Amino acid sequence: MKNINLQAKIFKFKDIILKPIDTECWEYFYKHSSNRKVFKFMDLSFVSKKEIFKYLQNLIKKSKNKNFQTWQVIFKSNFCGTITLRYPKLKPWELEMAYTISPNFWRKGIFSNSSNLLFKYLKKKKVGHIFCKVRIDNLPSLNALFKKKFKIIKTKKNKKIKNNFYFVYLLKKDL
Q1: Long-range contacts: 96-100, Cβ < 8 Å, 24+?
Q2: Which domains does the chain have, with CATH numbers?
Q3: What is the pTM of this model?
Q4: pLDDT in tens, 117-129
């Protein structure tokens, strides 16, 4: 599979906008990233406002690379999360998706509709499949991915993270 350029593009569908991440969303991003429920299932933990800002700047910097893009997920004019597509350095032929949605926006179809926007775009670009890595105890995320027809391809223990959490690797074919 040939890599596509992931450079910034704005997507819109009904009340949802996917807009490239920028510093204008700082206050919303800070509130989102400070919510323990948002990052409970991720291998990230922020201690200070400074660390969160540094993380945002890093996302913006990486998004200038054609192999990485993070979008703000905006629902009815409210920042409610992020979606990232990237080609990992160790496996640059595999497109990977990561996302976070703020808890007060869960169960509103936001991830479903946002991912549909990206999948439609990726299908036009002839991308045949996409991967996701999710902690095994993140049942809400796993259920959302199963609804999008992702299938489990393996589970693996991540020894880099304290508590040695297991991750589930999922694949979606036929975008």
Answers
A1: 96/130, 96/131, 96/132, 96/133, 97/130, 97/131, 97/132, 98/132, 98/133, 99/73, 100/32, 100/38, 100/39, 100/42
A2: 11-173 (3.40.630.30)
A3: 0.86
A4: 999 999 888 888 8
